[in-house]
């Protein structure tokens, strides 16, 4: 199958239905088949990684995002997903690094970062996010 839309539908379908391992398996097959990725694909894969809470996948996906031209600090949709994933994987410093690198921030980015801090017992750190 060479259609990015079909592959992305499968990846996001698994991710949205709490089947993160299957989402990552399909994504790996997608890459192996030579199909490129877009921001929708990446958000689905990042969501699967967040569900697993597996930091090892976080770096793999970050590398793919960078090589595909979707640097999380330059794309608010991808950046918000990465902040959520890094927070859920226990990589709060990486989440904050993405947040601070964003030139354009919206309510979703702020919410993701604040929830990440709160999730790890750093509720007072939210003041640094909003200042």
Describe, in plain words, how this protein is organized in 3D.
The chain is mainly α and 131 residues long. It has one domain: Serine Threonine Protein Phosphatase 5, Tetratricopeptide repeat (Alpha Horseshoe), CATH 1.25.40. It is globular. Keywords: Repeat. One of its GO terms (biological process) is RNA modification. This is Pentatricopeptide repeat. GO terms for molecular function: RNA binding.
Keyword list:
about 130 residues, mainly alpha, Serine Threonine Protein Phosphatase 5, Tetratricopeptide repeat, 8 helices, about 70% helix, about 0% strand
- Weakly predicted, low-confidence segments: none
The total of beta strands comes to: 0
Backbone CA Rg: 14 Å
Annotated CATH architecture = Alpha Horseshoe
Based on Cα principal axes, name the global outline.
Answer: globular
Question: How are the SSEs ordered, and which strands pair?
Answer:
Layout: H1 4-16, H2 20-32, H3 39-52, H4 55-67, H5 76-88, H6 92-101, H7 107-119, H8 126-130
Helix pairs in contact: 1-2, 1-3, 2-3, 3-4, 3-5, 5-6, 5-7, 6-7
Quick structural gist:
It contains 8 helices and no strands. The protein has 131 residues and is mainly α.
């Amino acid at each position: 199958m060479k259609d990015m839309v079909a592959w992305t539908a499968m990846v996001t379908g698994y991710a949205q239905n709490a089947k993160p391992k299957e989402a990552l398996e399909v994504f790996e097959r997608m890459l192996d088949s030579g199909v490129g990725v877009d921001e929708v694909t990446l958000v689905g894969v990042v969501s699967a990684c967040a569900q697993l809470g597996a930091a090892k996948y976080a770096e793999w996906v970050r590398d793919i995002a960078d090589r595909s031209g979707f640097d999380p600090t330059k794309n608010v949709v991808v950046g918000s997903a990465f902040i959520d994933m890094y927070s859920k994987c226990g990589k709060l410093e990486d989440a904050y690094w993405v947040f601070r690198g964003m030139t354009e921030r919206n309510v979703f980015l702020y919410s993701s970062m604040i929830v990440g801090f709160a999730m790890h017992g750093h509720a007072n750190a939210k003041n640094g996010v909003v200042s």
